Amino acid sequence: MLLEQLSINHCRIIDSAELMLSPGVNLISGDNGSGKSSILEAVAILSRGRSFRSPRIVDVIQHKQDHLLIRAKTTDDDNAFSIGIQKSRTSTRIRVNQQDINTQAALSRYLPVTIIDPNSIELVTGSPSLRRAYIDWIAFYLFPEFHKVWQNYQRVLKQRNLCLRVPSYLSALPVWTDELIKAQIRIQDYRERSLLVLKPQLERLCERLLGDHSISIKLTTGFAQAMDLSAESQKAFYLEKRDNEIKSARTLSGAHRADLQIMFNQSLAQQSASRGQLKLIAISMLLAQSRSIDTNNQGKGIIAIDDLAAELDGENKHKLLATLRSLNQQLLLTTTQSDLIPLEADDRMFHVKQGKVFLKNSSV
Ligand SMILES: Nc1ncnc2c1ncn2[C@@H]1O[C@H](COP(=O)(O)OP(=O)(O)O)[C@@H](O)[C@H]1O
Ligand SMILES: [Mg+2]
What we know:
The protein is of the alpha/beta class. It has helices spanning 36-48, 57-60, 104-108, 122-125, 128-142, 146-165, 173-210, 231-240, 242-248, 269-272, 275-292, 308-311, 314-326, and strands at residues 2-11, 14-20, 25-30, 67-76, 79-88, 92-96, 99-101, 113-116, 215-220, 259-264, 267-268, 302-305, 330-335, 348-353, 356-361. It has a domain at 1-112 and 295-364: P-loop containing nucleotide triphosphate hydrolases (Rossmann fold, 3-Layer(aba) Sandwich), CATH 3.40.50.300. The longest helix has 38 residues, at 173-210.
């Protein structure tokens, strides 16, 4: 998928902007506070329905406006799409090719964007939910049916938790336990299949960015490590933990407690890698995520990096830029340094000033 044209209205400092993007490198330069990150936020909102900087849309909508509107033209193989999202405090309107559609997930399919920003390190150091979302993102794009399976799991989990919380629903617990077991066997299977695709990509990227250090990644299941995950064994497990779960009023084990264990030189990365190494591990993981969905090597995923230079010192910055170039994917890079990366024929450079976006160079 390529992002050909991006229109932004009322997104933070940007009142109105239109960018015709290159399929290669798009360098977005400007001083601090000029609106560079706001451009990437607009892309994030189109791709996932929310910004990576603020969970609240009111923060992102331009002051004194009641909604924001982000539109794009994308292409995939020979097909062109026009997609758009309009968000106010209370409502969302999504359109694909002039038709209203109901779900963000349907929109997300048209724009698989991986965003790397100064908080990305949390993918390694932060809560397991971020790593579950990370692997599930791959499953979402690789396996069209995964999203339904995932939604079903959330629904079943909610019902089962209700049984554990409300005494009058307790009699339905066995039914929902059976449903949960079925659903999480499927979730686990999709996650494992995604991990199989991810692993070689991650190894390659870590080798480039982290040299001799060894990185490995392992999926934990949300159960004790040695437990066999057959339906019978899960059933016995939940029966044994029944009283505990009733006391806690929620499902204590399962796919919603799974995690990715990231090992750096045979120890947990969170505990053994330096801050600079953690950044490179997180960046490798995110680039590998984007590579993983590009099964035909057609540059399917789009990579957006906010403030790349602030992230890394000189040598690592050059290694990363060289690696990015070699990926053959569309790149959106923001920076305060307009000479961050030598531009090639198809690349574009935009300059942002007080929320206005200017095209600085283009060979076309
Ligand atoms: N909701 C908003 N409406 C208008 N301006 C905003 C809003 N939120 C933030 N800003 C302004 O946007 C600017 C930040 O833009 P940002 O994209 O973070 O800049 P950059 O990434 O170039 O440093 C700041 O000047 C800030 O005051
Ligand atoms: Mg910024």
